[in-house]
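Subject: for your reference before the review

Hello V.,

The reviewers asked for a structural picture of the protein, and I figured it would be easier to keep everything in one thread rather than splitting it across files. Below is the amino acid sequence we used in the manuscript, unchanged from the supplementary table.
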Amino acid sequence: MKISLVSRLIRRLVRGLFFKGFFPAAPLEVEHVEWAFYIKYLRKDMIVFDVGAHLGELTLLFSKFVGQQGQVHGFEASGAAFKRLKAICELAGRKNIILNHVALSDKEGMVRLHVYDDEHLGWSSLAQRRLDRYGIDVNPVTAEEVLATTVDVYCEKNGIPQIDLLKIDVEGLEYQVLLGARRMLESKKIRCCVFEFGATTFDMGNNPDEFEAYLKEVDYRVWNAVKHNPVFPGRTSAETACFSMHVAVPKA
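And here is what came back from the structure prediction:
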């Protein structure tokens, strides 16, 4: 999620409000913690999936740390964003990046992506979002039909033996991406997953209980990337949900 949107949502939540003994991490803090996690975790020769690559900021970071023998598979659904992503990665000359103009979800087929203007392109989502609920007067400018596949199908077709890092930031579709990775998760071939939670989760019709039940079923443990902040903060509704990044790994 773009920080500008997150900031507006957070401001509504922190007007003197504390969530059961914790103060929600600010969006920039969440972003800093997320980046610090990647820098500490990544190693040469790793295979990374950047799901929701947008313009490639993290794609390039991942590419640098995994080295020439590693791989970064970037996935971006928006046609406009993918065009820019491809140009940026080509300009950077990174040979270890494989880009895919496709959405990842829980099944194969065509999906309808609601696309915002250039300033808010990163907000594009499969969800029909009511941003006016948050006092934001921004609406999609168009919709496009996009091919969707799953993590499991992509790995099978491309001979991906394991995923060392599965990063998911897809404006509410995170749960569906995880559902589409069931075989890889059950076989513990995904060593680490980092995914977003926030108002977009509810906008897509998902909720934290589903995440927790599913991750428990595939035997993964999950925690908030920000120390001392709870899992799925403000978990009761879109209005209270706090932008946060979560880490999931196989249970020992």
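For the response letter, the relevant points are probably these. Residues 3-250 form a domain with the Rossmann fold fold (CATH 3.40.50.150). The mean pLDDT is 92.

Happy to draft the paragraph if you're swamped.

O.
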